[in-house]
Queue: 2 jobs
Job 1
Amino acid sequence: MNDTNRVMQSYGRCCASPRFFDDFYATFLASSPTIREKFARTDMTAQKQLLRAGILNLVLFARGMPDTKLRALGQSHSRAQLDIHPELYDLWIDALLKTIGQHDEDLQQADLQAWRAVLNKGIDVIKAAY
Ligand code: HEM
């Protein structure tokens, strides 16, 4: 199976797990005080829904969709706006892969490698706008 199909199926299993996004943000916020500060005034219920779509956009881009949505995310996360330093995406990926491991009960080693490749491709677009 190719990387993006592996990731789509794994993501489907994660989204079917009710606490997936709660656990992702708990892990991500715990990973650094800088990240906690960035989300200090955020409505986290809304943020979880936004992230659900945001991850889908990363996957769709890796499947060949144009980069329009990711360039917009790059703008909102850039130095001039949210000021999300490129290094913080490593913590984001670590937290996401850890959470996937906790919620995808059919996860195989090859799925994790596929996730890494798919996420990095889109995150490179977002970081390039910093
Ligand atoms: C807002 C997705 C990485 C911090 C958002 C939004 C989306 C999103 C869809 C709402 C729309 C927008 O503002 O453009 C993503 C995706 C990421 C990512 C897909 C990974 C590729 C990060 C990282 C941080 C971060 C690493 C670091 C702290 C924030 C903050 C907001 C935000 C602070 C605004 C929250 C608020 O409205 O109070 N993100 N994000 N994001 N993101 Fe990200």
Job 2
Amino acid sequence: SALPGGIIPALLTPVDSRGETLRDHLVSLLEYTLDCGVSGFYVGGSTGECFLMSVSQREEVLAIASETVASRVPLIAHIGAQNVDDSFYLAERAQALGYRAISAVTPYYYGFSFQEILSYYQELCEISKLPMVMYFIPALTGRTFTSQEIARLAAIPGMAGIKFTADDLFKLERLRGQLPEFVMYNGYDELLLPALSLGVNGAIGSTYNVTAPLAIALWESFREGDLARAGHLQWELNTIIEMLVGNNLYPTLKDILERRGLGGGLCRKPFLPLTASQKEESARIDAHITRV
Ligand code: NGF
């Protein structure tokens, strides 16, 4: 029942122009990344566009992923939602669908107090038998924590890890030292190698949907002590990430999958489809990834 380590794509959700999930495309993406050797999937997170989906659409994606992966690698279900009842419901579904862990973004928008956030996680950890990975992404939630606050959240029974999507490597290092048993996932793909050097257990990221072989090679180079190769791969990956982020990240990732014959579909509104010039850039990015 251990949490997965290694490279874990934050799974994209291919949808059609009406926002309905394209099951076949999702299955192709799962099979393709499994063939690349990923260690697990983070399903229904930011990259999965969960905050743009209804609860039943989120549940459908959780089910497709668990049916397709069929226990070949562990799955983490992101169940965080504005409405706590939705979180509780999705947590139950994740358990029934055989997920290894649940994860929830920090409650956001209303500027909740630390005590309110603490009790939110306490309640979720009480109702679910699955280990919880808190999803720390201050740039998007607007809510940061000190390392002392994270340590208090980490002490909640059932709180097993953190997805650390922040560039404060000092905080990451302090946490690693204070919480040696806590599972830490790097969240910014740009910082994979520095985070590995600070002892993260795994990495969850959007770009691994299209760059898994390179990220896995980086991971293995680091493990083998080949820091020169790991550094070179991070440089190559960051050149790709810079291009992806500059071209509207999620629609571009999906467009690249489409080009590879896997079917990426579109993003949900209000994301817009890529323009003609963004599509040209996307073709250039895909060609660049293939050359690396
Ligand atoms: O997309 C974001 C937004 N972050 C992801 C990742 O942390 C999100 C990161 O991979 C995630 O795991 C999820 O879907 O829940 C970036 O896209 C990547 O580093 C490029 O900047 O911050």
